[in-house]
Amino acid sequence: MKKKAELPEFETSLMRDMHRIERMNPVNYTAGDLMLAIGQKYLLEQTVPLAIEILEGHPLAEGDLFPGDLLLTVVRLPMPFWADRLPLKSKLAQILQTLDRVEFDQRTLELIDRWLKV
Fold it and tell me: 60-111, pLDDT tens digit by residue?
């Protein structure tokens, strides 16, 4: 009888979550999974396009914290990430330009405006 493969033990819940996300089929990622992975700069090549796809339909998609947390996580990625990903950058810019600005506090609006100027 074959033994079931044992999962490695991790020191933190974040490490467990990253391992879980890594093993998942990307079509099963939730907004929370995407927010977590992107916030950790993990699996960006597969998570950011999926996040943009969600945000195109629901700019205020909620991961696990508050409405719009996925959007803010994507916007907080370092600008060099976008240099070689102009189609994704263009899609995100379109999303940001169509937002209802009353949904956000002043600090978030400043972050969005800075992103749009780059």
Answer: 898 888 888 999 999 999 999 999 999 999 999 999 999 888 888 898 899 9
Alpha-carbon distance of 82 to 2, in angstroms, equals 46
- The Cα–Cα gap between 75 and 96 comes to 9
* β-bridge mates for residue 62, sequence order: 67
Using alpha carbons only, how large is the chain's radius of gyration in Å?
16
Asked if residue 108 belongs to a domain, the reply is: yes
Is the sign of the CA dihedral 106, 56, 70, 77 positive or negative? negative
Total residue length of the chain: 118
Q: Quick one: tokens of 64?
A: 């696990």
**Which residues span the domain enclosing 69?**
13-117
pLDDT at residue 26 in the model: 85
User: How many domains does the chain divide into?
Assistant: 1
What pTM did the predictor assign? 0.83
